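Final report, Chapter 2: Outcomes

The project's central promise was a pipeline that accepts a single protein chain and returns its three-dimensional structure in a standardized token representation, suitable for archiving and comparison. That pipeline is now operational. To close this chapter, we reproduce one record exactly as it appears in the project archive, with the input sequence first and the structure output second.
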Amino acid sequence: MKKTALLLLSMVGIMTLAGCKEAPQGVYDNMNKYNDNKQIEDPDSDYCTVKELNQTDMEKIAEKYDNIILPQSVDFSGIEDVCTLEVQVESDYINKYEKEHRELFGIKTDSYETSATPGGTNHCYTDGDKMINIDECGFVSYFDSSLEIADCVLVDKYRRGKDDFDSTVIKFQDGDKKLSVLCDEAKEWYKANFDNSTLDYEIRDAFVVEVENDKGKTSVASLCGEFCYKGIEFNNHYFKSYDENLTTTFKSMSYGTSAQYNDSKQLGSFIINNQTLNVIKATSQDKIISFSNAVEKVATKLSGFGTMEFELVAPMYEITLKGNNYESLYGPGQVFEARPVYVFLCKKEESSVDSICMPVSPFELYDKYCTIDMITGDFNTNLGL
């Protein structure tokens, strides 16, 4: 049986939508404990400079609290600036890049099907085992279904800065390659073929999958790229609501890429998720909420909520969409505000990433989250607190 990446991500969800979903009873029990705690008072805000944030001592901060567990390390050293941003969705992507993208991926036909999507007009080209979709807004999805797969299993997942990319070797069908080398090559390939000069691009997450077909067993790799502005990445995650009383829909725009390598040089799929964004205005902030103050605010908000363990803590740009008709929310040319937040993410116990044949995105690695706005100190969560 042929299984392709198309089955995994057919359209990656063009936008992340988190609606109401029944939470585990333990989550609700903890919510009730929280609601019974009448003594919670928000701590005053404490500010720092970017240079002071770069020098944050994680160990001293983590040992102060017993109701939250933080990761052993959080790296703020690469942050150059903290800004509020205005970002604009690409508006004429097809006319600008369609021809060169077809040449890049070896699509020889010039015949295509047209459809309407939330990202505007879509052109879909099919050429043998290859298919490419391009939206006006800069959404791109390419798939090559030539790799026959009878069975597959997730071997491991890696996060740059946390795991060792240099010592990890992927056993492709055409030979071995270090994960660090593959990521560096993938980054340079993107920079050489896609124009997004207002943002930096980094490979942060990687998945290795063992596949089996009539030729035996081999490995494929999924590399997930994130866009950054002066050292702070854009949100590339999907979150559900754990508020049983929530009546509105939470919408958060995610932005990233995923690329699946069937061997050390063959690209099985490549996706620019949702849209292509460009920064059109950046307002630098001279004082920001200190990380120690952000942790204090989260610990205080979760007081009486039991113990919460966060697997990933990082600064991140978040774009929150307003309204309920998502089809009109991020069309070509629209402008949004991107705000810097400290994000605290809990590992999802039963992630679909662990169960699908070929993970192509870190969408559902984490489920529960808390954020602290790095400018205002405002607290937000999907726990319904």
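Archive annotation: Residues 5-381 form one domain.
This record, like all others produced under the grant, will remain available to the consortium after the project formally closes.
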